Amino acid sequence: MTDTAEHDDPVTHEGRGAPLRERRLAAHHRARRVFARFGFQQTLRERLALLEKAAAVHDLDQLSDVYGDGVVEALETKVAGLLGTEAAAFFPTGTMAQQVALRCWAGRTGNPAVALHALSHPEVHERNAFSELGGLRTLRLTSEPRLPTAAEVRDFEEPFGALMLELPLRDAGFVLPAWEELTEVVQAARDRDAVVHFDGARLWESTVHFGRPLSEIAGLADSVYVSFYKSLEAFGGAALAGPAELVEEAKAWRHRYGGMVFQQFPTALSALVGLERQLPRLPEYVAHARVVAAALREGFAAAGVPWARVHPEVPHTHDFQVWLPYEPDVLGEAAVRAAGETGVMLFGSAWDRGGPGLALTEVHVRAAGLEWTAEDVKAAVAEFVARLPEQVR
């Protein structure tokens, strides 16, 4: 999926200020039934209501944080415990966290080359930040819509100091490797004396696919980045977790990069709320995403659409892609019209061009999506297809 350098949400693909985008967001907000209601789609009043739950996760009679102490340190301790690492550091953004992590590893390994996937977030969405700011050099292991294989890591023709794996790989369809494949890839990197860093922005929801707890998954890597807003619905923020010595060095670089923010308690509290309220529900969302995906396939087949694809066919997480053989603006218009006329928004995210005559969108299943039965999904597909122009059906 295309995206902007500054934004990594599921609704930015049409570009800011686009009339279709504005109509889609308005239709989504008014719809009585959607698959997900993200925080950035809410009003400020609705968003601030999240902090009403903060008293259940932290002592609000403590002094507020100053430059990373107090509630920020409590969040760091919580994350390190969940991931099974010695320490963790809070960062205002994942972009900063990963630049710092890979910069620190380059200094320790003596090799500034980072092996990664061509579709990984730093390659696609961060304006060459690794090379422009960190003095790092990226090596693309593959551009296939899957994670790199052990053979691709083992046989790559250039040396590298670090292997970076995005789990799941969003732009390939939120895909994950099998557990055995992942362990083989990690071992292949170790055999080359490279460290392993996980871009785990969405690692929280990978436990169902892997059949392993978070600590075991994170334990494969030398360092891990996690996001607090992509699945946990916090206001923002990220954490870098790993060995205590690395984390202490990362905090020094965080200061140099401008990440030593005076007060961060709203974001830290929202992250603690997310860990308490959202994290335990992610397996439920993943399970229901598979119900939704199957119903979408059946619905498009029943509606007579000549070709449709849900990718992955069985979602690896609670997010997946839908591909259809129409132009993006045609599909976007049909989605907005169906939502406005029925109150049901089947596709809340933008449609992006996936090739000649093809478009794709992302489907995100969260708490609101649990209300949908398979029959609800099929009925919504029929309404959506009915609003496609006759000449393209």
From TrEMBL:
The lineage of its organism: Bacteria, Bacillati, Actinomycetota, Actinomycetes, Kitasatosporales. This is Threonine aldolase. Residues 1-22 are annotated as: Disordered. Keywords: Pyridoxal phosphate. GO terms for biological process: glycine biosynthetic process; L-threonine catabolic process. Its cofactor is pyridoxal 5'-phosphate. Belongs to the threonine aldolase family. It comes from the Bacteria. Coiled coil: none annotated. One of its GO terms (molecular function) is L-allo-threonine aldolase activity. Residues 65-297 form the Aromatic amino acid beta-eliminating lyase/threonine aldolase domain. One of its GO terms (cellular component) is cytosol. Pfam families: Beta_elim_lyase.
